C-alpha cells in the first residue's frame, strides 16, 4: 500500500479556483467529466488534469460507466472536515461563484431527465407486457417489505437496480444504499429518479458475477427480477454471498418455473423461472440458509421470493 501524499501536497491540490469549484459541485451530485466541463466552461482535457490532481490528493474517485467517466467525492470522513473549513473561510465572491455553478447544475439535471425519459419511453411497452403477466407490482413490493422485515437494512445493495425502484423504496431504512447495474442507460434513469426524490445513493456499473464491492461490505442484498437473465444463477448467488457480511440477508425475487418459452426471444429471458429446490441448493452452496419462501400467484406467471441469511459463524473448510 502506497503512503498517503504529504499534507502540504494535499493543500497544494486545493490551491486552485477550478479545483475548489469541482469539489463544491461534487458536493451537490456525482457528475461525469463531460458534465463538469459543461458547468465549468472548460475543455474536458483541462478538467481531467484538475481531476487527476484532486484524485492523487485523495479527495475524489473516478469510475467508468459505459462510455462515460463519473466523478464523486472521497469518503465523508475525509471530505467533511475539508468542507467545514471551506464553509468557515469562504469569502463572499467565492460563495457567489459556488452558487452560480450550483445553478448551472439544473441544466445537467434537465438533460439527464430528458435522456432518461427517452430511454423509458422506448422500453416501457416491453416492461408493461411483462408486468401484465403476474400479480400487481404493488403486491410484489408489499411482499418484499414483509420479507425484509422491520429491521434496519444497514448497508443495502440492489443488484440489477434498473430504474432504482428498490432503492427508492428501502434506502431510507438503510445506512447506505448502492445500486449495481450493467446498463449505463438504466443507471442514468435511476440517477434521475432518485435525485428527483431526494434519495441519497451510490449507483455503479457492474456485473452480477463480479460485483465492484468488497467482501462482507453489505448487510442486505436484493436481487429483484434479474436472475432469469443469468447464464449461471449459482455463480450470481455465490457472488452476492461473498459481498454479504456475516448475519446479512439475501432476498431474491423472480419467477417460479414456467413454460412461457416465447420470453426467451421476446424479452431475452435465459431462465424460465426457478424451482424452489434448485434455488435452495444454490443458496446452500453459497453458505446461505433459506428461511423464507413466498409464492405470489394470480397471473400467468408466479412471482416467488426466496430469502436466505449468511451464517454469523465462520464456515469450516472440509478436511
Biggest beta sheet attributes: 7 strands, mixed
Give me the Rg, rounded.
22 Å
Order of helices and strands: HHEHHEEHHHEHEHEEHEHHEE
**What fold name stands as the CATH topology of the largest domain?**
Rossmann fold
Task: Give the end-to-end Cα distance, rounded to a whole number of Å.
Answer: 34 Å
Low-confidence stretches: none
CATH superfamily of the largest domain: Vaccinia Virus protein VP39
Continuous helix count: 12
The gross shape turns out to be elongated
- CATH class bucket of the largest domain: Alpha Beta
- Measured as a percent range, the helix fraction is 40-55%
Q: Count the beta strands.
A: 10
Beta-strand content:
15-25%
CATH architecture of the largest domain: 3-Layer(aba) Sandwich
Question: Please, what is the average pLDDT?
Answer: 88
What's the arrangement of strands in the largest beta sheet? Answer: 6-5-4-7-8-10-9
Number of domains: 2
Oligomeric category: single chain
Polypeptide structure, described:
The chain has 319 residues and is α/β, with parallel strands linked by helices. The protein folds into two domains: 7-110, Orthogonal Bundle (Arc Repressor Mutant, subunit A), CATH 1.10.10.10; 133-310, Vaccinia Virus protein VP39 (Rossmann fold, 3-Layer(aba) Sandwich). The chain is built from twelve helices and ten strands. The chain has a seven-stranded mixed sheet, sandwiched between helices. It has a three-stranded antiparallel sheet with strand order 1-3-2. α9 links the parallel β5 and β6 (202-205). The radius of gyration is 22 Å and the shape is elongated.
Amino acid at each position: 500500500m502506497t503512503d498517503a501524499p504529504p499534507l502540504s501536497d494535499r493543500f497544494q491540490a486545493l490551491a486552485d479556483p477550478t479545483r475548489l469549484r469541482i469539489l463544491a459541485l461534487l458536493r451537490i451530485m456525482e457528475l461525469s467529466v463531460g458534465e463538469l466541463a459543461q458547468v465549468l466552461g472548460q475543455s474536458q482535457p483541462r478538467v481531467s488534469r484538475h481531476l487527476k490532481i484532486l484524485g492523487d490528493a485523495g479527495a475524489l474517485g473516478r469510475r467508468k460507466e459505459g462510455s462515460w467517466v463519473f466523478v464523486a467525492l472521497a469518503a465523508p470522513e475525509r471530505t467533511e472536515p475539508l468542507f467545514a473549513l471551506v464553509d468557515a473561510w469562504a469569502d463572499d465572491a467565492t460563495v457567489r461563484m459556488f452558487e452560480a455553478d450550483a445553478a448551472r447544475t439544473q441544466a445537467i439535471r434537465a438533460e439527464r431527465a430528458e435522456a432518461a425519459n427517452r430511454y423509458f419511453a422506448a422500453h416501457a411497452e416491453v416492461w408493461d407486457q411483462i408486468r401484465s403477466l403476474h400479480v400487481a407490482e404493488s403486491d410484489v413490493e408489499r411482499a418484499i417489505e414483509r420479507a425484509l422485515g422491520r429491521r434496519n437494512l444497514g448497508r443495502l445493495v440492489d443488484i440489477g437496480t434498473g430504474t432504482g425502484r428498490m432503492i427508492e423504496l428501502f434506502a431510507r431504512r438503510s445506512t447506505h444504499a448502492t445500486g449495481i447495474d450493467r446498463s449505463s442507460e438504466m443507471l442514468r434513469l435511476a440517477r434521475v429518479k432518485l435525485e428527483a426524490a431526494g434519495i441519497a445513493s451510490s449507483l455503479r456499473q457492474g456485473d452480477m458475477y463480479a460485483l465492484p464491492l468488497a467482501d462482507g461490505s453489505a448487510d442486505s442484498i436484493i436481487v429483484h427480477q434479474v436472475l432469469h437473465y443469468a447464464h449461471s444463477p449459482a455463480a450470481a448467488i455465490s457472488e452476492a454471498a461473498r459481498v454479504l457480511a456475516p448475519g446479512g440477508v439475501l432476498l431474491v425475487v423472480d419467477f417460479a418455473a414456467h413454460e412461457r418459452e416465447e420470453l426467451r426471444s421476446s424479452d431475452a429471458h435465459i431462465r424460465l423461472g426457478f424451482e424452489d429446490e434448485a434455488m435452495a441448493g444454490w443458496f446452500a452452496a453459497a453458505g446461505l440458509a433459506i428461511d423464507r419462501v413466498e409464492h405470489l400467484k394470480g397471473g400467468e406467471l408466479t412471482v416467488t421470493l426466496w430469502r436466505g441469511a449468511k451464517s454469523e459463524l465462520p464456515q469450516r473448510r472440509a478436511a
